[in-house]
Write a structure and sequence with these properties.
This protein is of the alpha/beta class. It folds into 2 domains: 141 residues, FAD/NAD(P)-binding domain (3-Layer(bba) Sandwich), CATH 3.50.50.60; 188 residues, FAD/NAD(P)-binding domain (3-Layer(bba) Sandwich). It is built from 8 helices and 24 strands. Helix 1 runs parallel beside helix 7. The structure holds flavin-adenine dinucleotide. Flavin-adenine dinucleotide binds next to helix 1, helix 7 and strand 22.
Length: 382
């Protein structure tokens, strides 16, 4: 059997697991390559702790170059265009050919969709998170606003988790009584995808901690001073720190490739994660997998699970062995309530009748498990 070329675009949660899973099932006659412009991706999930000084910035990344030890080639390059008709991808390091393509380029951010957001604070990107960390380290009183603009956004629990971690940090620092914390979201309630009960419990958890929650109020503008935000419900507020969740968008290179068929995210077969182009798969934040009235959340655990499945499917096609079980849509994310306790939220998002999910109680062992998840990510186990 001639060697096949499996090309993985993007070395985040999904791309790395797709490559590892395909590599585990295929012998060395088949080539597996990951392309990413960033040799050292950072774990966004550490940002809520990073901004309050509870994680070291230089311990939140992993080097994709280390995948060479596992027989996976890494190319550090920008992906300029994807040509599925010719099975070629043009990158800043040259043109690459493929037999099987995995598009795992994540979600891009449109910082200009909300005027003023580019110059405001955020915890959705590593550089912005470091900037916010410096600001918080100097903050002694005032008001912090966390403001999401529009769904979908990565890790739906992140705005609430971040507000609760800031609350915990402010209490430890002895400044909580001098600090107001507010969360503005565009949705009618928090964490709708996890069901009504989970949503109500998140509301209560915020309420118990004196964190204001304003719903149906996506942020529409941040003043150039960075001190005033306006919202879709017509209200506005002054704050010392305004941190936005940026509007997410399909990366341009994916939109231009045509595999999204003009849709906001790449539609895929929910059983195989294959796009409408044969042998071209799209996994993780870049795709949309319907789940009842919602879609599978944009979270690393789902991207990783989809990557593992796609690696198995590609290997089975190359080896001409039976097609594996379909993708199951199962995944659980962590939601820390403080530096010491974390809950889990997740379940089966492809269950008959819509998402079947739970939110567990925040516990010390949940936090230990979250810490383990972060360590496993750094060593490519996730
Ligand atoms: C604050 C925050 C907290 C989070 N917490 C959690 C959590 O607790 N649990 C969880 O499961 N998820 C969490 N997430 C979500 C998680 O980070 C994403 O869902 C996950 O990274 C998606 O994986 P992916 O493989 O689809 O894309 P990504 O991990 O975004 O990877 C995409 C890769 O493609 C590369 N790329 C993009 N365009 C190009 C191009 N043109 N050329 C070359 N390379 C390119 C990028 O450099 C990137 O490395 C959190 C996110 C945020 C922002």
């Amino acid at each position: 059997m001639a060697g096949n070329k499996v090309l993985v675009l993007g070395g985040g949660f999904g791309g790395v697991q797709a490559a590892i899973s395909a590599r585990a099932a295929l012998d060395s006659t088949h080539e597996i390559t990951i392309v990413d412009r960033n040799r050292m991706p950072h774990l966004c999930g550490m940002n809520p702790m990073l901004i309050v000084g509870e994680r070291d910035a230089d311990k939140t990344g992993r080097s994709l170059g280390r995948l060479a030890n596992r027989g996976i080639k890494f190319v550090e390059a920008n992906i300029d265009s994807i040509n599925t008709a010719d099975q070629k991808v043009v990158t800043s390091a040259g043109t690459l050919e493929y037999d099987y393509l995995v598009v795992a380029l994540g979600a891009g951010y449109d910082w200009d969709a909300v005027p003023g957001a580019r110059g405001a604070y955020s915890f959705y990107d590593f550089d912005y998170a470091r900037h916010l960390r410096r600001r918080l380290s100097r903050l002694k009183r005032g008001k912090i606003v966390i403001a999401a603009a529009k769904p979908p956004y990565k890790c739906p629990p992140a705005p609430f988790e971040t507000a609760m971690i800031i609350n915990w940090w402010a209490r430890n620092k002895g400044i909580r009584k001098d600090l107001d914390i507010s969360v503005y979201i565009p949705e009618p309630g928090p964490l709708g995808v996890a069901g009504k009960e989970a949503s109500m419990r998140v509301r209560n958890a915020l309420d118990q901690r004196g964190i204001e929650l304003v719903t149906a109020a996506g942020v529409t503008e941040v003043a150039t001073t960075g001190r005033e935000a306006s919202f879709a419900n017509g209200s506005s507020t002054y704050a010392d720190v305004i941190a936005t969740v940026p509007v997410h968008k399909l990366p341009n290179v994916v939109a231009e490739s045509g595999i999204a068929n003009g849709k906001p995210w790449v539609p895929v077969d929910s059983r195989t994660l294959e796009t409408t182009v044969p042998n071209v798969f799209a996994i993780g934040d870049v795709n949309v997998v319907p789940s009842g009235d919602f879609a599978i959340p944009k979270a690393g655990v789902f991207a990783a699970g989809q990557g593992t499945k796609v690696g198995e499917i590609i290997a089975s096609r190359i080896m001409q062995s039976g097609e594996p079980e379909p993708y199951d849509g199962v995944g659980y994310c962590y939601m820390a309530y403080s530096g010491g306790r974390s809950a889990m939220v997740g379940g089966n998002f492809l269950a008959d009748g819509g998402p079947d999910s739970v939110l567990t109680e925040p516990t010390v062992s949940g936090m230990k498990s979250k810490d383990r998840f972060e360590r496993d990510w750094r060593t490519f186990k996730i």
